[in-house]
Amino acid sequence: MPAHLTPTARVRRSPFFDATVAAGVTSFSVYNHMYMPTGYGDRMGEYWRLINGVSMWDVACQRQVELIGPDAGRLTQVLCPRKLENMRPGKGWYVAVCDHHGVLLNDPVLLKLSDEHYWLSIADGDLLLWAKAVAAECSLEMTIREPDVSPLAVQGPKAIEVMVDLFGDKIRTMRYFHFRETELDGIPLVLARSGWSKQGGFELYLSDGSRGTALWNTIREAGAPYDIGPGSPNHMERVENALLSFGGDTDAETNPFEVRMGKYVDLDAPDFVIGIRALWDVDREGPERHQLGVILDHDGRLTHHDLPSQVSRANAPAGKMTTNTWSPRLERNIGICLVSVGLAAGDRVSVALPDGRHVAGTMCELPFI
Amino acid sequence: MPAHLTPTARVRRSPFFDATVAAGVTSFSVYNHMYMPTGYGDRMGEYWRLINGVSMWDVACQRQVELIGPDAGRLTQVLCPRKLENMRPGKGWYVAVCDHHGVLLNDPVLLKLSDEHYWLSIADGDLLLWAKAVAAECSLEMTIREPDVSPLAVQGPKAIEVMVDLFGDKIRTMRYFHFRETELDGIPLVLARSGWSKQGGFELYLSDGSRGTALWNTIREAGAPYDIGPGSPNHMERVENALLSFGGDTDAETNPFEVRMGKYVDLDAPDFVIGIRALWDVDREGPERHQLGVILDHDGRLTHHDLPSQVSRANAPAGKMTTNTWSPRLERNIGICLVSVGLAAGDRVSVALPDGRHVAGTMCELPFI
User: What would the mean pLDDT of B226-236 be, rounded to a whole number?
Assistant: First the structure.
């Protein structure tokens, strides 16, 4: 489906939109009611730039749900099945927000700016509605809103050099998922060591939407000695490293244990946490499904399918492949699967692709790399 | 921005997807995490077909939030500031779902299938999260989910003839916003006299996603004598008739009174309705903004801008034009505005277009036609 995307006032432009157009963006997705650049016309070049160099991404669509007020800390704990009592300001924690049945609603990063100020940096979904409803019905006092805060990611092994040139050598000691409020040429931002890749890097949370082009150009110029170039959350890299895509790898029944998020669930979190009792049950009984990889036997490069593909073992349905890709580093076709816990690494399966073909493959643990 | 849309498992295909591809769809938007066709390559032809003939639309992205159970009626009343006590099964009502501050969260059609079974047929936004949080926190007992229900719209003055040929002459007496559960060649659906145009027509809520192509083809064949063709929610027609586009014409502070939804708010609805107290305040003090049209002086056809344009009177900012279009029937450039209540029909204004031009215009009441 190469098809055009129709502009509409209902879908918002990122503060970096003009800069990405100037940089030659050729395709978008829509994420949190905002255009998200997905490519600049050089698919393999963008991949290798992320793996070997440094890439800059407009990920403004990773919107924040901001909680400010005396009960903000209480609400984060109501929403997140992780023990937050020892969380310190300046840290980001990956969390699994669940409904009352333990079903995953979003997998945000929770950033604690102060005891009364938090951001949930969200995947695609209106978690703002969930947070507002819970706060109001629990009579918790705070302001909940989507602030003017838009991340720009700088990812890849050379990202650190760009950041050192901009922010000084001290940044080398910044730890993963730590952040601090700062500015760059007067542009206000929160600088975090994070990002949706496994190649290392930073996210600059721009907190003045009118400065998008200025921030983009500052990064582009600082990155020039390192051959920085435009990119986007990279499908091939994220499948190789099995980063979770909420809404793509998950469905309306997925709980955190099914998608390798169990380590981010504290079963001894307070019993008022939404979903914790259901998660106790899942933990006791064991999940019915789990996430595994599949390495397909097919030699040529298979299309990336946007539909789930049925996975069968010995002609019996056993789950689905939720996404697939050609892996440039493994030089194999690989996929992420959500399958019955009866399946294990090493099992031989058949995958029914949406185009009608059946391809054999071998299950494996995730990540691939 | 003619740009490609990237396929992703995170954005779902409609049950009519294959049929729309076969019909030559050329562009999409994304709506409720689903592809929504927006054009078939004949912009003016699609418009006139809707105005003078009959058009069929894949609007599966108008998803349902389904409430089933003993407390389902109670929850609809908690969520909707309209008095629902006399609502009968088989009717759809347009409702303004608000947050606790009276801010509009969605403008769904509420369909009552029975005393314990409702659908909220939603605009673009995860109202499912809102409904689930409120129900759980209020300890209301029911199932809340997004069912496998996907509307196909048949719109235009000749839509009635297609429906009579399919369902019999009795359908002529069906009233606007009434519906009934039925089937067509064994395809289960809910047939409603409704749709997001002012040209008359029906929506067929397909309740078996595996039958999308079958339903599409059945309608296409029945419509052939009336020159039916593919179309989509039509921007030009909706602006002429000032149908509300939630998320486009509204912002994070819009209340129903600002966007001509006051007639769908019952101020004497029960005091447990979410937002009703805030709406009492707005009613007492009067809203600060209202929706008016603007007819621009410009003679040529202006681009449809997807960004809000500032509206000024006597050099003082007075609000924004939230969308604009060329009107084929008026042969004028028109726009929908959200402006200070200080502005009235007849006022002369200046509109600062996103491309830098300033165009003069005259405010008017809505709709235009």
Answer: 98
**B230, β-bridge pairs:** B56
Nearest CA in chain A to B272: A137
- Count Cβ–Cβ pairs < 8 Å, chain A vs chain B: 160
**pLDDT for B55-89, tens place per residue?**
999 999 999 999 999 999 999 999 999 999 999 99
In chain A, which residue's Cα lies nearest the Cα of B322?
A: A9
CA distance linking residue A313 with residue A303, whole number of Å: 23
Task: Tell me the one-letter amino acid at B92.
Answer: G
Amino acid at A80: C
Q: Domains in chain B and their CATH numbers?
A: 17-63+149-238 (3.30.1360.120), 289-369 (2.40.30.110)
The C-alpha torsion from A97 through A101 and A102 to A107, rounded to 10°, is -30
Integer Cα distance of B346 and B113 in angstroms: 45
Rounded CA separation B31/B50 (Å): 21
- Give contacts of B14 with chain A, Cβ < 8 Å: none
The residues that bridge with A30 in the sheet, in sequence order, are A35
B129/A30 CB distance under 8 A: no
Q: What is the DSSP string of B141-198?
A: --EEE--S-EEEEEESTTHHHHHHHHH-GGGGGPPTTBEEEEEETTEEEEEES--SSS
Nearest CA in chain A to B97: A129
Give CA–CA dist A177/A194, Å, rounded. 5
Interface test with B, best of A8, A40, A97, A277 (most B CBs within 10 A): A8
- Measured between alpha carbons, how far is B158 from B224 in angstroms, rounded to an integer? 11
Q: What is the pLDDT of residue B303?
A: 87
Closest CA to B154 of B209, B230, B245, B86: B230
- 8-state DSSP, B66: E
Residue B28 has its nearest CB partner, among A5, A129, A136, at A5
Q: How far is CA A25 from CA A39, A123, A202, A234, B307, in A?
A: 6, 22, 21, 14, 19
B22: which residues sit within 8 A by CB, 6+ positions away?
none
The better pLDDT of the pair B113, B7 is held by B113
Asked if A71 contacts A141 with a C-beta cutoff of 8 angstroms, the reply is yes
Q: Count each helix (H run) and each strand (E run) in chain A, helices first.
A: 8, 22
The amino acid at residue A6 is: T
Is the separation of the CB atoms in A125 and A105 below 8 Å? Answer: yes
Tokens describing residue B229? 């063709």
What ipTM goes with this model? 0.97
Nearest to A125 among B8, B28, B126 (CB): B126
Q: Cis bond leading into A151, ω under 30°?
A: no
pLDDT, average across residues B14-26: 97
pLDDT at B1: 59
Residue B2 has pLDDT above 70, yes or no: no
pLDDT tens for each residue of A42-90: 999 999 999 999 999 999 999 999 999 999 999 999 999 999 999 999 9
pTM of the model: 0.97
Question: Do A229 and A46 touch, CB atoms closer than 8 A?
Answer: yes
The closest CB to that of A6, out of B11, B29, B245, belongs to: B29
Residue range A156-177: mean pLDDT, rounded: 97
Closest listed residue to residue A58, CA positions, set A181, A220, A199: A220
User: Which chain A residue is nearest to residue B137, measuring alpha carbons?
Assistant: A137
Nearest chain A Cα distance for residue B59, angstroms: 15
pLDDT tier at A2, thresholds 50, 70, 90: low
Pairing mode, if any, of strands A55-58 and A229-231?
Answer: parallel
Whole-number percent of chain A with pLDDT over 70: 99
CA A130 to chain centre: 19
Gap from A129 CA to chain B (nearest CA, Å): 5
